[in-house]
Write a structure and sequence with these properties.
Blueprint (H helix, E strand, L loop, with lengths): L13 H11 L4 H11 L8 H15 L14 H4 L12 H6 L15 E2 L4 E2 L13 H6 L21 H11 L6 H22 L15 H15 L2 H17 L5 H4 L13 H13 L7 E3 H8 L3 H11 L8 E3 H15 L1
Antiparallel strand pairs: 1-2, 3-4
The protein binds zinc ion (2 copies).
The site of one zinc ion has 8 residues, from loops.
InterPro entries: TniQ
Protein name: TniQ protein
Pfam families: TniQ
């Protein structure tokens, strides 16, 4: 048993509790970490089995049953690591002051960027010298380089983005207790962010692919822009329109090729608004004579029975079909006609 055994807080991460055990017992983090590697398993082990062994060891030295309830993002490393922060530690300095140096589970979620209690952007660096926040920073409660106290790190006051708000609400509804729900929620947010990133970066800005290198502030601005689109289908339809028009300037006429990045979002139940917005775009926009759409692509978009749809077009519009595609400005007529034919 350890000499001093603080109570785990149900809102803190396992990492946070590990750090606090070192702090309360006056261990240096390196020594404590070495001790864990020798007696149990390294803190850096990433497979679920090792994480269980580590948690069991912490239980045996603290006697605290709720160690098993603490959220541990490393247990998701092999399958779902995209949703969590590992290298960096994000904190709200105001919460950090209030909760006496704990790391909240919410902060480990990659899309949680704004503290919804204080309306402040989370920070992962010392505001004075820019050094990254590490486990040692948390343990000491101050920057390892310039000794500025974490509770005095400066933060930017911002309006929370809707993804941070959604996650804060989910946390209040105990989402951390149900792994399946948590991953599902994160996957929906991830899908929306990925799906809309092409619209936001269509003006030749850096690619969302490099998002890992973005600062919290850059990620926040990205999330705010995506939120605007996913909360308003009309705006999403307009964004699709701008995207298609830009491609038109480059003489790209096949809608399926223009929207190739969106292929996996058509019919995707994680983000149904994307499918519905592309349908609206096809049915309500004006197109040039050159713009075309593949019959198969159109069929996928509207979820029709493919053979029936193809035969219908060949029968009804024999002169239109050329290389399996039809003029885009006829798509609306064809789709409405086919639906009428079905009923
Ligand atoms: Zn806060
Ligand atoms: Zn510093």
């Amino acid at each position: 048993m350890m000499l001093i055994r603080p109570y785990p807080d149900e809102q803190e991460t396992l990492q946070s509790y590990v750090i606090r055990l070192a702090k309360f017992n006056h261990y240096q983090f390196e020594h404590w970490s070495q001790h864990l590697s020798q007696q149990s398993i390294s803190l850096r082990q990433r497979d679920a089995k090792s994480r269980e062994l580590l948690t069991s060891y912490l239980h045996s030295v603290t006697g605290m049953d709720n160690v098993f309830n603490l959220f541990d993002q490393w247990q998701f490393y092999n399958k779902d690591k995209r949703h969590f922060d590992y290298k960096s530690i994000k904190v709200c300095p105001l919460c950090f002051a209030e909760n006496k140096g704990k790391i909240l589970s919410l902060w480990a979620l990659r899309y949680y960027l704004v503290c919804t209690k204080h309306d402040t952007l989370l920070v992962d660096k010392c505001s004075k010298c820019n050094s990254a926040i590490t486990e040692n920073t948390i343990l000491q409660g101050k920057c390892g380089s310039c000794v500025k106290e974490v509770t005095t790190f400066e933060t930017e006051v911002v309006a929370p983005d809707s993804f941070s708000l959604e996650l804060a609400r989910a946390a209040q509804n105990q989402i951390f207790d149900t792994t399946v729900d948590l991953i599902n929620k994160l996957l929906i947010i991830y899908t929306k962010l990925e799906a809309c990133s092409s619209f936001i970066y269509q003006d030749g800005q850096a690619l969302w692919k490099k998002k890992q290198a973005y600062s919290i502030e850059e990620k926040y601005h990205h999330q705010m822009q995506v939120a605007e689109l996913v909360e308003n289908e009309n705006k999403l339809v307009s964004a699709i329109g701008r995207y298609v028009n830009l491609a038109l300037e480059e003489k790209l006429y096949d809608l399926g090729k223009v929207l190739v990045k969106f292929k996996s979002y058509i019919g995707n139940e994680k983000f149904p608004m994307m499918t519905s917005a592309i349908r609206t775009f096809v049915l309500t926009s004006e197109f040039t004579e050159d713009q075309r759409v593949g019959v198969t692509w159109l069929n996928n978009l509207f979820g029709f029975e493919s053979k029936m749809f193809k035969n219908f077009i060949i029968d009804k519009y024999p002169s239109l079909v050329f290389k399996q595609s039809v003029p885009l400005n006829m798509a609306k007529t064809i789709v409405i006609d086919f639906k009428g034919n079905l009923s």
